[in-house]
Amino acid sequence: MRSVIILALVFVVIAVAGPMFAPFDPAAINIPNRLSPPTSENLLGTDALGRDILSRLLYGARWSLGLAFLISLLGLFIGTVIGLIAALGGKWLDWAMMRVTDTFLAFPELVAAVVIAGVLGSGTASLIFALSVVGWMRYARVARGIGLSLKTRGYVVQAGLAGLSPLYIARWHYLPSLVPSLIVVWTGMFARAILGISTLGFLGFGVQPPMPEWGTMLLDARIHMRSTPLQMVWPGLAVVVCVLSINLAGDALRDALSKKEIR
Fold first, then answer.
1. What is the tally of structural domains in the chain?
2. How confident is the model at residue 155, as a pLDDT?
């Protein structure tokens, strides 16, 4: 458990401080040194424009993980608000909001995100909007389920009878119970957001050149996949290891919280 969490934290540190350790400017073009294999100067080689792959990976972590963090937080906020409104708003409001949630859940997330990004056009803003729109439903389901279970608790009923506002009750009685479960959901959605960003980047809808991002690096490298396959290996490996470590850290966190509840 500790090793998995440490590995996940390493990626977070790379996203925050990685550019400080990048040996080269990620956008610096060096045509004479294009498609170079790993050397002592370029540890992971160079791409088709002679840009250092290691530097681009380190800078790309900031885009991939930073955007995923923002998108997962937006989904967390939207989903929690919708879930609490459904739980506290009465039978008909609950029914209406859950049918909307079910409608969104009926579409595959990545397919829906690609359609939205295709309509809005390429760019970071379109990427954030598309992945945020398709990433809030699981939070809503969890928040609504826990909210309904808390609604009949004695201390919640007493708070309502005392004339406290719904906003106050949600802040002090619902959110503390929601946080542990939502954190576990958030870790999974954080990893899914990284995959979504990389997928849209590979399809050309993500962060636009010359900004490095792991998905766009894969897109740039696919033309030279047969001649220099390492160009695709490095960003692909970064995505796989990052997503796997975050998912495993989320599983470890869930198990730890489950043991704590049992005790």
1. 1
2. 78
What is the gyration radius of the CA atoms in the chain, in angstroms? 22
Cβ distance 213 to 60 under 8 Å? yes
Distance CA 20, CA 213 (A): 17
| 141/221 Cα distance (integer angstroms) | 39
| Side-chain half-sphere exposure of 25, counting CA atoms within 13 A | 6
The gap from C-alpha 146 to its chain's centroid, in whole angstroms, comes to 23
Establish if 36 belongs to a structural domain. Answer: no
As beta bridge partners, residue 46 has 52
Q: Indicate left, alpha or beta for 22 from its phi (over 0: left) and psi (-120 to 50: alpha).
A: beta
Q: How confident is the model at residue 261 (pLDDT cuts 50, 70, 90)?
A: low
Place of tokens 């073009």: 29
Asked if the structure places residue 84 within a domain, the reply is yes
- What is the predicted pLDDT for the residue at 198? 92
32-63 residue pLDDT tens: 888 888 988 888 999 988 999 999 999 989 88
How is 211-232 classified by DSSP, letter by letter?
A: S--HHHHHHHHGGGTTT-THHH
Tell me the C-alpha distance between 8 and 232, whole Å.
Answer: 22
The answer to whether residue 93 sits within a structural domain is yes
Look up residue 120 and give its two tokens: 């809005």
3-state secondary structure of 153: coil
Residue 236, domain extent:
2-9+46-258
Q: Domain for residue 24, yes or no? A: no
| Overall size of the chain counted in residues | 263
CATH code, 91: 1.10.3720.10
The two counts, helices (H) then strands (E), for the chain are 11, 0
Phi, psi (deg, nearest 5) at residue 46: -130, 165
